[in-house]
Amino acid sequence: MGRILGHYILPHPPIIVPEVGMGNQHVAFRTSSSMKMIAKEISALNPDNIVVISPHGPNFIDGISIMDSYFIQGDFEEFGSELSMEKEINKKLVKELKYRCEETIIPLISIDHSNAELYNIEYKLDHGTMVPLYFIDKFMENYKLTSITYGGISKLHHYKFGMILKESLSNIPGDFVIISSGDLSHKLIEDSPYGYDSSGEKFDRDLIDNLAAGNWEDIIFMNDDLVTNACQCALKSIILLLGTLDEFDFKSDIISYEHPFGVGYCISRINIINNCESKYTKLERSFERRFLSMTKKESFQVNLAREAINNFIKYENYIDIPSNTPKELLWNKKGVFVSLKIEGNLRGCIGTLTPTCDTTCEEIIRNAIEACSHDPRFTPVYEEELSLLTISVDILDNPEICSKEDLDPQKYGIIVSTESKKAVLLPNLQGINTVEEQLSTVLKKAGISPNEEYSIERFEVKRYL
């Protein structure tokens, strides 16, 4: 029934919208011109429906979100413009997606006017959706919208959701265009609001080259540290889009690329080359191989934490102390932090500055289980995520009182405290390179003003991977 007429990757800099840029949009002239060209192309396809995958709608750590009222509005007020738009939501497609996701492990969170308040969010269009639609609306307006926001779940699950999206479209009457909205690295020049990192240039170059060549697997398995350091918001949008291309070989036309503000703007059209077998099984096996390779290299401490987590999530009980536990974990009592990540994104972290158990071994087991099940920032880890977890274990030395001059964010963790407030930050964290950044971050975490009187302690850790 439904047909997909086109797949596009588009950026979303508000400044290229004339009512926002107010004459400054020429700074991103190539992007603006290419957006107009693609908008004309889409209008010529004359779709009944447009699906936009955005980074900037309601973003959930544990799922993908979709807008689910009959109509939705949005505006550019936060960018200094009164420009607004209203769109009709394709409720049939939303209903089909919800039904299909209930049959899988993919969490799909539908947002409407009534539950938006419960989530403490506004039911409105985001700029990641509105910027591409602004240009399309210059040439056509009679279409329904499906507004999707990617989440904190794994790349594999985003790819699978893309497959579900394609299957759902086939059951809905009409013609569809799918847009992956996202900006590439935000760290391409020193003057960027996000600073400079050489990872940004490599990320953009590798992503563009792989898009052009249709190297879908290389896109999905881009290095997690590279992706994180590049500070981008496009990759998961693109991976979800790739899921809709699961049974096709493709290449991409790179229409334009520039980075006038230190942020990479890429405009690309996907061209289907031919049909192929589903890539999903191969993708699953690749994830499994990478997981097995990682676990073979893990330290005893990390393997202990992993076994504790696996056993607790599957059977809801604590493991016994293993017979091969190193003596130092049995004879010593130390504070321990256990950190969980999925593809570079934090999934849970719980720790103790001073020991609460009889042995360090038991401290690791306890905090591993707490990290996967009781970190208040996250929903509990579920069984399907176990093979996606990267785990680190930090064993702490005793803290010592110090001054700002004694700090080193690469070597020492930090504790700040007043009579009623306290916070801790581990050493050698991504994005924290200076004493000022470390101190500012931990004070904010504690809710302590820099002007208040507070004490500082530092501590060393031994990190196990």
UniProtKB/TrEMBL annotation:
- Chain ranges of the AMMECR1 domain: 296-465
Query: Coiled coil where?
Result: none
Protein name per the record: AmmeMemoRadiSam system protein A
Reading the lineage from the top rank, the first entry is: Bacteria
Molecular function as annotated in GO: ferrous iron binding; oxidoreductase activity, acting on single donors with incorporation of molecular oxygen, incorporation of two atoms of oxygen
